[in-house]
Amino acid sequence: DEALVRNQDDEHNLRLRLAGGRIWQSGAIQSVYHPRNSLRHLFAQQRQYGYWRPFVVKKHGQPGSPRQLVPALFVAALLLAALLLPWAAWPAAALLLLYGGYLALASCAAARAAGAWGLLWRLPAVIAAFHIGYGWGSWRGLWDVLRARSPASGFAKITR
């Protein structure tokens, strides 16, 4: 669907599955990925992916997978913990401790799998940019979908 700035492949795969098709992956297929050159650009890309997901849900009436919902729930938990800070610091401390542990484990696993231990110190910020960007974008997209608004202009152009 060319009306979607992001998530075209996700929406296409959903249409295939709804029509009874199956999605196959093959190690024989080769592609080249050009990563974003900064955390800011990566965050913007993931924010767009998250933003457009509610539009796909609206179009097809199919909920997102748990993998797609968790970043939005995490962002909501972060905001709630921040709001509770004046009265109770433990929710924020617990959330940050758990997420910090997750980031450490995921970063070690990724560095090990890639054989690139020199990247270990960068990986937590990269993973957090994925999660928080996608989660924040999901909430913003849901806000626009629920208000029956056209996609916001800031999300209508592909970021690089």
SSE blueprint:
Elements: H1 8-18, H2 39-60, H3 66-84, H4 90-114, H5 123-146
Helix pairs in contact: 2-5, 3-4, 3-5, 4-5
What is shown here, in short?
This protein is mainly alpha-helical and 160 residues long. 63% of the residues lie in helices and 0% in strands.
Q: Can you walk through the features of this model?
A:
The chain has helices spanning 8-18, 39-60, 66-84, 90-114, 123-146. With 160 residues, the protein is mostly helical. It has one domain (8-21, 33-155). Helix 2 packs parallel to helix 5 (123-146), helix 3 runs antiparallel to helix 4 (90-114) and helix 3 (66-84) packs across helix 5. The longest helix has 25 residues, at 90-114. The protein is globular. 19% of the residues are buried. The mean pLDDT is 89.
Keywords:
0% strand, 63% helix, 160 residues
Strand content: under 5%
Average pLDDT score: 89
Structural class: mainly alpha
Query: Biggest β-sheet, characterized?
Result: none
Shape: globular
Radius of gyration: 18 Å
Number of strands: 0
* Count of alpha/pi helices: 5
